[in-house]
C-alpha cells in the first residue's frame, strides 16, 4: 500500500502520473467522467447507488397533482428545507430527487462542522445545524443521525492567525460556543501525534464534530414525512411551468417531470451542481460553477482515535477523524473545473489529480508526521458547486416570483444546511428570513454579472482557493464582537 510520502515523491518526479495503487495517468482536462467504485467513508449510501440507475423504474411514489411547495434536490439543503417547511406547518410540501437522496454532491462530503466563523450570522446558522443534527432529530424520530462530537482544532502558525482565533473565541462567548486558546504544549497534550514545533497556539472547540450525510438526510426526511411532507425519489425534473399574471409579472405555475407534472406556486432550487440547469428551465440565471473537490482516506493510524478534527488555514488543509484513520483534504489554488455537468451523474467519482493535490500532502505531513509512512486506503474526488464570492445563493429570484434558490454552498452545505434551511423556509412562508441574510441573497448580484459566464467562472475559481485560507481579520476596537441588544 502506497504512503502519502510516496505519493508526494511520485507527483514531484512525474507530474502527469499517479501513484501505483489504482489511479492511472489523467489529463488536467476536467471533462473526465466518473470512475468505477471506490472505497469511501459512507459505504451505505455508495452501495445503494451502485449498479443500473433506478430512474428507469419510475418514481418511488405517485406524484401528487398539486403541492404548496416543490423542493428540487435531495441533498443536505433540500432535505433541511423540506424539514423546516414542515415544522412551520406547510402542508403538501414535496421534495423531488432525480436519483436517490444525497446523490450528486452530498453523499461524498467530508461532513465537518466548525461552529466558529468571523460572521455572527454564520455562527447562529451553524449553531442551529448542530442543534438539529445532534439533538432535535433524534428526539423527534428516535433515530441517530450519525453525529460524532469529537471536537475541532484550528491551527495558528503565526501571531496574526492566533489573534484572529482569539477574536473568534470572543465571538463564540457571545453565542454560548465553548472554545479555548491552547498553547503549543497544551495542544501536544490534547493531540499527541501533532507536530507543534512551528505553532503559536491553537483554538480548541470541544463541541465541534462530524456529520454523516446519509444518516442526516434520511432522518430529516423521516421527520418531515411525519408532518405530512412527501419525498419522491427517481423523479427527474424536466421543466418549470411559468405564467404571467395580469400585471405582467412572471410567476411559477408548476413543475414538469419525466413521470408527470405538479401544479405549484413555489419551487425551491436545491439542486447543487445542477442548480444552473434547473434555473435555465425557468429562465433564471444561477451564478455558480462546478469544480472537483478531493480528499484521501488513510489506512489505520495507531493513537488517532477520538482526536479532534484539524483545520490549518495557512497550510490550506484539513484533517477529519475517520474512525481509526484520517481524511486529508483542502482547497487548492488551481482547482479543476467540471466542464460538462452530466445529468446522469449520481454516485460516481473522478480520478484524483495528484499534481493538484500534492500541496495538501505536504501540509498534512508537516502537521501530523506519522502520515509520512501511512498508507492511503482510498481517494474521494467529486463535484462541488462554487460561487463568485464563496457565499451561498439564497432567496427569491428577481426574474421569477415563487422561484427560490438554496444552492451554491461552496462545499459547506452540510454544516450550513440546518441554519440556511430554516431561514429559507421562513423566507418562503413569511416573505423574508428571520436573520440578516443579505450576504447570501441572490439579489446581491446585478443581472449583468449573473449573465456573464466568464466573470462567474474566473471569480469562482479564485474564491475556491480562499476557502480554507481566509484573509486575516483585523477589526478596530470599536468593531470587536459584543452582545447585541
Automatic annotation (TrEMBL):
SUPFAM superfamilies xref list: FAD-linked reductases, C-terminal domain (SSF54373), FAD/NAD(P)-binding domain (SSF51905)
UniProt signal peptide: none
Domain FAD dependent oxidoreductase central positions: 430-466
GO MF assignments: sarcosine dehydrogenase activity
Membrane-spanning residues: none
Any one Gene Ontology cellular component term annotated for this protein: mitochondrial matrix
One BP term from GO: sarcosine catabolic process
Region annotation (Disordered) ranges: 14-40
Short name of any one Pfam family annotated for the protein: DAO
Sequence ranges assigned to domain FAD dependent oxidoreductase in this UniProt record: 69-427
UniProt-recorded name of the protein: Sarcosine dehydrogenase
Organism for this UniProt entry: Saimiri boliviensis boliviensis
Amino acid at each position: 500500500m502506497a504512503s502519502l510520502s510516496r505519493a508526494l515523491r511520485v507527483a514531484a518526479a512525474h507530474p502527469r502520473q499517479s501513484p501505483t495503487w489504482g489511479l492511472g495517468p489523467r489529463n488536467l482536462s476536467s471533462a473526465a467522467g466518473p470512475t468505477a467504485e471506490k472505497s469511501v467513508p459512507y459505504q451505505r449510501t455508495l452501495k445503494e447507488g451502485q449498479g443500473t440507475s433506478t430512474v428507469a423504474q419510475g418514481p418511488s411514489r405517485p406524484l401528487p397533482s398539486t403541492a404548496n411547495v416543490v423542493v428540487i434536490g435531495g441533498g443536505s439543503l433540500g432535505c433541511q428545507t423540506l424539514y423546516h417547511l414542515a415544522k412551520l406547518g406547510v402542508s403538501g410540501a414535496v421534495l423531488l430527487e432525480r436519483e436517490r437522496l444525497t446523490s450528486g454532491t452530498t453523499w461524498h462530503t467530508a461532513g465537518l462542522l466548525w461552529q466558529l466563523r468571523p460572521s455572527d450570522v454564520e455562527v447562529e446558522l451553524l449553531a442551529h445545524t448542530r442543534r438539529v443534527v445532534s439533538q432535535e432529530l433524534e428526539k423527534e424520530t428516535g433515530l441517530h443521525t450519525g453525529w460524532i462530537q469529537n471536537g475541532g482544532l484550528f491551527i495558528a502558525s503565526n501571531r496574526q492567525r492566533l489573534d484572529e482565533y482569539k477574536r473568534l473565541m470572543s465571538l463564540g462567548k457571545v453565542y454560548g460556543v465553548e472554545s479555548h486558546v491552547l498553547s503549543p504544549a497544551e495542544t501536544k497534550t490534547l493531540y499527541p501525534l501533532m507536530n507543534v514545533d512551528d505553532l503559536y497556539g491553537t483554538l480548541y472547540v470541544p463541541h465541534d464534530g462530524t456529520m454523516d450525510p446519509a444518516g442526516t438526510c434520511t432522518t430529516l426526511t423521516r421527520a418531515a414525512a411525519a408532518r405530512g411532507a412527501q419525498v419522491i425519489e427517481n423523479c427527474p425534473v424536466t421543466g418549470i411551468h411559468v405564467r404571467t399574471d395580469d400585471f405582467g409579472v412572471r410567476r411559477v405555475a408548476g413543475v414538469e417531470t419525466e413521470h408527470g407534472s405538479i401544479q405549484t406556486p413555489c419551487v425551491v432550487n436545491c439542486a447543487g451542481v445542477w442548480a444552473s440547469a434547473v434555473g435555465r428551465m425557468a429562465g433564471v440565471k444561477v451564478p455558480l460553477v462546478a469544480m472537483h473537490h478531493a480528499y484521501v482516506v488513510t489506512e489505520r493510524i495507531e493513537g488517532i482515535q477520538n482526536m479532534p478534527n484539524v483545520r490549518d488555514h495557512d497550510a490550506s488543509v484539513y484533517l477529519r477523524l475517520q474512525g481509526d484513520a484520517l481524511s486529508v483534504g483542502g482547497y487548492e489554488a488551481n482547482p479543476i473545473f467540471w466542464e460538462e455537468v452530466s445529468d446522469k451523474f449520481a454516485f460516481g467519482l473522478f480520478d484524483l489529480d495528484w499534481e493538484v493535490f500534492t500541496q495538501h500532502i505536504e501540509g498534512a505531513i508537516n502537521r501530523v508526521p506519522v502520515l509520512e509512512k501511512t498508507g492511503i486506503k482510498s481517494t474521494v474526488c467529486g463535484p462541488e458547486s462554487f460561487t463568485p464570492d464563496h457565499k451561498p445563493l439564497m432567496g427569491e429570484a428577481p426574474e421569477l416570483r415563487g422561484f427560490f434558490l438554496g444552492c451554491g454552498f461552496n462545499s459547506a452545505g452540510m454544516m450550513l444546511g440546518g441554519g440556511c434551511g430554516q431561514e429559507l423556509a421562513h423566507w418562503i412562508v413569511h416573505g423574508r428570513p428571520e436573520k440578516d441574510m443579505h450576504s447570501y441573497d441572490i439579489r446581491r448580484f446585478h443581472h449583468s454579472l449573473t449573465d456573464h459566464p466568464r466573470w462567474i467562472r474566473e471569480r469562482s475559481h479564485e474564491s475556491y482557493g480562499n476557502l480554507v485560507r481566509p484573509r486575516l481579520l483585523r477589526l478596530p476596537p470599536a468593531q470587536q464582537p459584543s452582545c447585541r441588544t
